[in-house]
Predict the structure.
Amino acid sequence: MKLKYDFYFQHIGEEWVGVPVGEDSMDFDYMLHLNEVGHDIVEMMSANTTRESIIAGVLDMYDAEREDVEKHVDNVLAYLTEQGLIV
Amino acid sequence: MRHDVFPLLRQALGLAHDNDALPEDTDWKATITMLRDHAILAVAADAILSLPEKQRPDIGQQMEMLQHSAAVMRMHHTLNNAVCDVFKAMYDAGLHPILLKGQGLATLYPKKFTRGCGDIDVYLKPDEFEKGCRIIYDYCDVNPSTPVTPLPNNIHLTAHKGENVKFEIHYLMADTAIADIKEEYNQWISQTSFSFPQRGEVTINGMKIGILPMQLNVIFVLEHLLKHLRSGGVGLRQFVDWMLLLHDAASPESANRIDHEQLRKDLKRFHLLDAWQVLGGILIWQLGLPKGEFPLWNERKARYSQGRNIEYILCAGNFGSTLAEYKGYYNMAPSLKRDLLALKYALHYQRFMYHVMPYDTPRKVWSDVKRVITNAINRML
């Protein structure tokens, strides 16, 4: 799975804000607001990947329990799926 | 305040000075407006959004910049796809189109797809013009019965595809700032464009696209900049384009070195050497180009670009969009006082332009003076 569009992210205030930039993204006209981990997950999804690889990537970057990471990754994936942003 | 943009720009272009201090206590509303007027907001946005939190604009302004940058990036995707589609069709038909200005220069920017963009300018050889034009018309769904005959006093035809894509199909390279040389300049640049030993090219979406050879492109970009300056306002974007071309030519990997002696001859031939050497000061002192990368550097002449003259350029904005505010007299009712103020600014501006274009400026001054006198006399009668 991967993200449907390319996103341009900037850290604004307390969060990462992303806007789609590819030509095919014209119909997605709002911004993604993510925390640090959410942003890392989305960055990993700019290329084809799997849920397992994402969890492994997050565990590499953060000192966290696997169970918590799985829950967080699933939440982010559910949110992106709901927005129709995963292909 | 206006000069706050330069450390940001240098930072964004990867040419920051060692002692550059990024602005503190900036009037962000005015700075963002100015960056937008000069078509470089998306270029500078990265540098602004990388400032320490307390130096940045407020959250709303940051969001506005992010959206602006995203819109510019999307526009590049749209235009680049159109460039590739049309150039592929023309190459397949055995034509030799050249991509001029914007999309051909945008790839030089350190952060891709941030140069403010507009039209797609395509130059076609005279004997390929009709065929190339038909291919673009076909792509844009223009009615096939639309003529492809060049219009008098115009240098290009236009074709639109949807709301966002506009082609300018050039049969003349330029409508020059100096009228006397228009024919000779166009003849020279069109002849040499296709016969130059080193072909210019850029890669867009993985496809090689023909652009002007570097030796000609640096002159063409300057000449186009002068046309805007002469007509009231030039955006910093055009200075950045010119600077990045020279920076690219000077890079160790470049296959596009500039022959300085040939450049001097060509600039002199078209009365452009003064403009090159005066305006070069902005590239070095404001935009951060290393002096060694600027061919034919002349410090004495370059100083004429500074002080009130760079202020004028900053205030005027792209296409002179903010000049009225600078001049102050713009909204005054017609009166002798207004005429005199207009004359004062015209003369100040022409004094600057005299250093930039000494060949052409006296006639322009005389025409400005005549216009003011005529207006005043007409009002009195």
